[in-house]
Amino acid sequence: MIITYVTGNCTSCGGQQCYGNSCIGNNCLVRGCEICGICENVRLPIIKKKILYLDQCFFSSIFCGDDSRIEPIAIKIKQLVSHQQLVTPFSHVHETESLQWGHCQKKELFQFIKRHAVGHAFKFWIGVWSAQLQRAFQAYLTSIDTPGVIETDALPADIHRWDGYTWVDIRRSLEDPDATARCKADFVKRLTENFAKWRGRNLSYKELYAEVATELSVEIKDLIPWIIPTMRLFAARLVGEVKARQVVDAFLISTDFNSVPFIDIASTLYAKLRQKVQNPTWYTNPKKSLDKFNSFAFDVRFISTYAPYCDAMFIDKTMYQWLNENDVKLAKKYKTRLFPYSNDGLDDLSKWLDNIQNSILEDMKQNIRLAYPLANV
Ligand SMILES: [Zn+2]
Questions:
Q1: What does the alpha-carbon distance between residue 272 and residue 323 come to, in Å, rounded to a whole number?
Q2: Which of 6, 62, 113, 220 could anchor a disulfide with 20, C-beta 3.0 to 4.6 Å?
Q3: 91 with 194, same domain?
Q4: CA–CA dist 263, 327 (Å, integer)
Q5: Ligand 1 centroid from CA 161, angstroms
């Protein structure tokens, strides 16, 4: 038996400094002796970790050490992660943004993010969207009330288990950074070219939201090619093949479709952008707009996909302002705390982390010390 942490002498064989913790798996601590091989399994209590999404700007700031306000917060986060109270999973957006980072250590940055997450990752966006849409469509068709958000749609089932002493890093990337860079540049160019079309209109936020949701309902068949055939197949079993097509088409223009979480949040953010652009004095300089909205698509992607599954998110200041406006109030709707990258936002995040730390009960502390003998809890 390999002992990772020696905790003392073996009472079975009498060996000196040969007994200790071997590994952790499936909420079970395996302890034993490296000499006689005696082994015991200690069941660890069930835990529910807080899920915190950290925007790329947080990680690049710690990585570069260019913001002294970030470091003390990063230390608190790391401690809570090691105490199994918090997890900061990485997403495909972290990978994409790391590889687009204009710094020679882009690959090292993504490795750093994965280490910070202790290997925990959000599921890929397309699977999350597909699960939300299929469930919403089934609820629409059967009138059975189903939750829009189920954690396992976006996070692995073992996210709340006690972390083992090691984790496996799969380093092969499927990303093509050059292709992504071209798509990104093309998207922001088309987006900002639309500003002239949107400027000077006087539509309400609700009208703009409906406009974006309608556009998304048209784009969805390209974004998730299998989703329409899957819905039609499901509908055909209930209403027959002839009606199935009509039912799917009706769903795609219904308020039930607009309420699918990722559609709702993406529609919100793009509607907010159009609302701001209606002001004839905002974002009038094309060059500045290209810079300002350079990563807008990435921000919309990760917020719309993952916000409903997070207890808290640390996000860009503009995104925070838009999501916090009276006609949106995303935090209240999805019960997700939002912290902006600002002095106040960092202070609030720090207090939120302190509250988690201060709420660890003594029983739990004993289990943490048992499982991780070097933990300072
Ligand atoms: Zn022994």
A1: 9
A2: 6
A3: yes
A4: 16
A5: 29
What's the 22 CA to ligand 1 centre distance in angstroms? Answer: 13
Task: Clarify whether residues 158 and 217 are in a common domain.
Answer: yes
- State in Å: Cα 29 to ligand 1 middle: 17
Number of domains in the chain: 2
The model carries a pTM of 0.92
pLDDT of residue 146: 79
Question: What's the rounded Cα separation, in Å, for the pair 375 and 5?
Answer: 12
Q: How far apart are CA 236 and CA 35, in angstroms?
A: 64
Tell me, yes or no, whether 108 and 237 share the same domain. yes
Say if CB 103 and CB 63 are below 8 A apart: no
Cα dihedral value 249, 250, 256, 262, nearest 10: 20
Mean pLDDT by 10 residues, the chain (377 residues): 96 97 97 97 97 92 87 94 96 84 73 87 95 95 86 95 86 73 88 92 96 95 91 94 94 95 97 94 91 92 97 95 91 94 97 98 97 93
Between the CA of 364 and the centroid of ligand 1 the distance, in Å, is 28
Q: Tell me what pLDDT residue 61 has.
A: 87
The secondary structure of residue 308, as a DSSP letter, is: G
- Please state whether beta strands 312-315 and 337-340 pair in parallel, antiparallel, or not at all (unpaired): parallel
> How many other C-beta atoms are found inside a 10 Å radius of the C-beta of residue 30?
16
Residue 156 lies inside a defined structural domain of this protein: yes
d(CA 304, CA 98): 19
DSSP, collapsed to helix, strand or coil, labels residue 161 as coil
Give the Cα separation of 166 and 8 in Å (integer).
22
Residues 39 and 159 in one domain: no
Please give the DSSP secondary-structure letter assigned to residue 90. B
